[in-house]
Amino acid sequence: MAGAGGGSNDVQWCFSQVKGAIDDDVAEADIISTVEFNHSGELLATGDKGGRVVIFQQEIENKSQPQCRSEYNVYSTFQSHEPEFDYLKSLEIEEKINKIRWLPQKNAAQFLLSTNDKTIKLWKISERDKRPEGYNLKEEDGRYIDPNTVTALRVPVFRPMDLMVEASPRRVFANAHTYHINSISINSDHETYLSADDLRINLWHQEITDRSFNIVDIKPANMEELTEVITAAEFHPHQCNTFVYSSSKGTIRLCDMRESALCDKYSKLFEEPEDPSNRSFFSEIISSISDVKFSHNGRYMMTRDYLSVKIWDLNMENRPVETYQVHEYLRSKLCSLYENDCIFDKFECCWNGNDSVVMTGSYNNFFRMFDRGQRRDMTLEASRESSKPRQVLKPRKVCAGGKRKKDEISVDSLDFNKKILHTAWHPQDNIIAVATTNNLYIFQDKVN
Amino acid sequence: MGQRDIISYETSVRRKSGIRTAAKMCRLDVESAVKGHEQHVNIIPSSRYMVGRGVKRKLSECEDPTLDLPYPQQRQMVLDLCLNKLQSCQRRAEPSLHRSVLLANTLRQIQREMRQEGVLHSLESPPPAPSLPQALAAQRQSPEVAPTPSDRPDTPVATFSPSPLCEDDNAVSGCIGLHKRPWSEDDGKSPDLLLGSFEITNSTSYLTDLQLDDIFEDIDTSMYDPSDFSVLACPSPRVNSGSSLGSDDNLKAFSSSSALQVCLNDLDHIMEILVRS
């Protein structure tokens, strides 16, 4: 599988690290709800159901060793969102972090946007490794010295101290969404960003918190006529006027903000006609798109619905250019999956650095990679059993029916409680972060 | 470790030498120490290994038994599931609009199909009045859907209806024996009203629109005293919310059953909430 560096050598994925508690008793607050690398790949942020953000920083473990591997260690942890109660509607607002997006780095500090269902916050993460010492009028602990005892003048100097990483909320963007926020996306203009809920998309300026522009509104006048909701939205990586949003009916609309202030009329509508032979009661539910991601080069976009990953060329609206089946063996199980609610699971997907491979999660802690160039796919598992340092992951195979071969797993043995919904790929290297329910696995390609 | 008792905490300290002093706060900081992980684990062939694990939850009912059922039964099962889910959807602390819309669309699709096939009986269901139950639903903490219709009169599903009036009306309107499955407009309405309730909870104008006293003057709470009550109603999909309790003679047509007690308790609960507010 071609890696970020190109070439035709197969990448072998090895276990690198796992973060999180080992015991099987999962506290609900620890469930990971989002994973995101920053633009350099040096930082890896996770958000959880308890409203916390944990940031890991890549450190080169040991430069002298030939097999030097980089490790991610905790850099900062902070409570981003707290649970709230909306008294008007008598509804709890969950503190679960739905999305984290990093801002491009402009100075020494790092900035990220994190959002729960209703409120987006801009966090500044900065390092401090010096502190002023020797104040003229203050003690070291801050108390003021009696001025009568001061006989000399001295100017404080900066002295090195232990590195401290501070996270502080710089902006709070609140009260702009009636429905649950599902996406945030930072514009390539480095000034604005969008936030999308079930029915509306708002455009914000990063500096202004008391105003936002509504750019998409699909709320019908009569809510009883509602049949479609927005499920994800993203800005184009280079064109600051272009964004897309996906719907629960499996369509993607591309909008151009130059056309009008309210982008209710799309510029392009991407929709694949339904395959009549696959029609079932659940056709609509499984066609609902759970994630949409532009490729890094901006020419393609990828969508994830319940059973497949589709790659669309932005110039062709009537069908995707590539379709990959993630777990087609589930198609005959849709009724059971509907019963146990798994059919509503929202899987995300991601591109590798050079857009040659895409990745998404599945059940039983499996995740899938599709090599677009070589037309090959791989199934891997994130498990404690394959967690020896630098252990090469063995490809897994699910037996759909008939005689099960050795090492294959039958569909009925799959654990539907173990789902991988969130994955992220380092922007340059072959390093991936895969989130199981409460653990974060980091895999890297095999060195030499 | 690192559970909900983490209060606002904005800094972590990290020493350059690599020793982390704030490790306690970082629940993701636990490296799984797989040193000397039992070697024999790798020796177990994977087929046995999977079975031996024992924690995997098998896909419920194994192979989809529904595939064996004839199409109408399949459809019926999906329909029932749909209605159940819509109800439980509304009872959650956080109703998800996305999920509700998907369920409602599936429901509508099945109903449309059934109607086309002429399966539905056109019962004399009076024209529904959507605004009233919506408004009353909004008064409550969590708006709720019309009760699941049941074609087995002895096991009605204990559910809420969007207004106590409707409930009473259902009590009035039917005898158990009468009930087929009065779908049609009512169930077509339930997904719509469900979505309507998402709207109403966001607006406050309904309070000025309603003549609340008019609604409440019809309610005779004496009938909800369980000790006095000798007859109970089978909850059916909300028929007409607008009409009052009306005909006392219909009340006499009821028969009681233990299963229906649950419905009465629900009614009690509804009344409590309304009276409190």
TrEMBL record, chain A:
Keywords: Repeat, WD repeat. The keyword Transport does not apply. Gene3D superfamilies: YVTN repeat-like/Quinoprotein amine dehydrogenase. GO terms for molecular function: protein phosphatase regulator activity. One of its GO terms (cellular component) is protein phosphatase type 2A complex. PROSITE patterns: PR55_1, PR55_2. The keyword NAD does not apply. It comes from the Eukaryota. PP2A consists of a common heterodimeric core enzyme, composed of a 36 kDa catalytic subunit (subunit C) and a 65 kDa constant regulatory subunit (PR65 or subunit A), that associates with a variety of regulatory subunits. Belongs to the phosphatase 2A regulatory subunit B family. This is Serine/threonine-protein phosphatase 2A 55 kDa regulatory subunit B. It comes from Esox lucius (Northern pike).
UniProtKB/TrEMBL annotation, chain B:
Residues 71-118 form the SERTA domain. This is SERTA domain-containing protein. Residues 120-163 are annotated as: Disordered. Pfam families: SERTA. GO terms for cellular component: nucleus. PROSITE patterns: SERTA. InterPro entries: E2F-SERTA_domain_protein, SERTA_dom. It comes from the Eukaryota. Residues 132-143 have a biased composition (Low complexity). The lineage of its organism: Eukaryota, Metazoa, Chordata, Craniata, Vertebrata.
